Amino acid sequence: MRSSFDQGVTEIERWKWSRPDVSVYTSLVQGLAAALKVSDALKMIDYICRVGVSPSEEEVPFGKVVRCPTCMIAVAVAQPQHGIQIASCAKCRYQYELVSGDITSIDSEAISMDLPAWERGLRLLQLMKQSIPAAVHSIVVQTPSGMARTQRFATETVDLPAQKGERVTIASAVPSNVYRNVGPFKFSPKAPNVYPGEPMCLTNHENGRESLLLRAPVKDGKLSLLNPSVLVPLLAVLVAGDAASGIIDPSLPQFLVVAAISSFGAGATLNTLVFPRLNQLPQKSVDATAIKQKLLSQYDLLQSRIKELKEAAEKEVWMLARMCQLENKIFAVGEPSYRARRTRVKRVREGLENSLEGRIELIDSYARISSMIEIEFEMESDVLAAEALSNVRWRLQAEANDEAERLLSSQPVTTEWI
């Protein structure tokens, strides 16, 4: 009778416990802190921050939220199995290449750049706002698929954005092979004022730190016509040529100056206004992405608040444990003169317990909302991808079965075995 009653029910389903509520967690944290088990109390707070996530070592994390290097809003999630992916930003409507992997090697060098007179003058006049690089880094990132990619960039400080062995995500401008066709023209949806594939932002998965990257200085021996050290002498030669041509034709220098200014103005207008607008993605193509990115932005904000509350709760746990220890010392001494001090310590301990209870309730509510956002996001991405993969597998199996039946039916049937 019992076996038939339990038929179809596994052992795990019979002994699956419900998740404790916030009051149970609060009592556990306060009790562990009063027993001076601070490490266990901190682990319990970490469990509260992760609603619906198994505390075992085999957990599958949701991933790391990656922000747009231009707008600094959440645009994608870098999961452990992700390597290289293209992400679109619904705000600026540009695309970025996200390279996620572990750093296998890193080579950094602090540099000291002596600014020339022309650049100091431009910075004094607020005409040049580009940051001055303080260090140049060259790293090799290996993706989960085994492919390695080299990235070279500069940072505004000498601090390392990441170290060897850490998992990072580098957001770069899309390469030149990513474009969209508009009639006979091809437009690359990359951010303005950057080269294709140029690193723009680095996100460290270990500590969550985001570092904006600068363009690495050009190595010695490579000059450009846009470099003022080359451009200024060239303009001087052109001016001298205009002066010489004025002897031949007085109206020729004026014509050349007007033509040069018109060409420069037209080029600047195209580069700053026209081309960036043409490179943007159409608004309709990012409408669906905008909804997901709003959810990710809310999720990112909740995670930052949970982190702040967690740090404050951890400090209160330490203070609560010290107050309990101090109360135990006063009780062990047993001096009547310490009665007022014991009352004071008890009042402080009760205040810490009430404050800790309020923080744990906020953490639990924020963590639940974060889990709801994770569910909605994964239903729109991971579940659809899994369903598509399953449908492909069944379609291939059906095609294989049809091919086998076709081959069997095409062979002639002999009567020798009858």
Would you kindly provide a written description of the structure presented here, covering whatever features stand out?
- This protein has 418 residues and is an alpha+beta fold.
- Among the domains are: 94-217, no CATH class; 228-275, no CATH class.
- It is 50% helix and 16% strand.
- The protein is built from 10 helices and 11 strands.
- It has helices at residues 2-5, 11-14, 22-34, 38-48, 117-124, 228-248, 251-279, 287-333, 339-380, 382-410; strands at residues 64-67, 74-78, 84-88, 95-110, 135-142, 148-155, 167-173, 180-182, 185-187, 199-204, 210-212.
- The strands form 3 sheets. Strands 3, 4, 5, 6, 7, 10 and 11 form a 7-stranded antiparallel beta sheet that branches. A two-stranded antiparallel sheet has the order 1-2.
- α3 packs across α9 (339-380), α6 (228-248) runs antiparallel to α7 and α8 (287-333) packs antiparallel against α9.
- The longest helix is centred in the last third of the chain and has 47 residues, at 287-333.
- It is globular, with a radius of gyration of 32 Å.
- The two termini are 53 Å apart.
- The relative contact order is 0.11.
- Mean pLDDT is 79; it is low at 1-6 and 243-249.
- InterPro entries: PPR_rpt (IPR002885).
- This is Pentatricopeptide repeat (PPR) superfamily protein.
- PPR repeats lie at residues 21-55.
- It comes from Populus tomentosa (Chinese white poplar).
Averaged pLDDT, please? 79
Biggest pleated sheet: 7 strands, antiparallel
- List low-pLDDT spans: 1-6, 243-249
Order of secondary-structure elements = HHHHEEEEHEEEEEEEHHHHH
Q: Give the structural class.
A: alpha+beta
What fraction of the residues are assigned to beta strands by DSSP?
15-25%
Radius of gyration: 32 Å
**If helices are DSSP runs of H or I spanning 4 or more residues, what is the number of helices?**
10
Helical content band: 40-55%
Total strands: the figure is 11
Broad shape: globular
End-to-end Cα distance: 53 Å
The protein's oligomeric status is: single chain
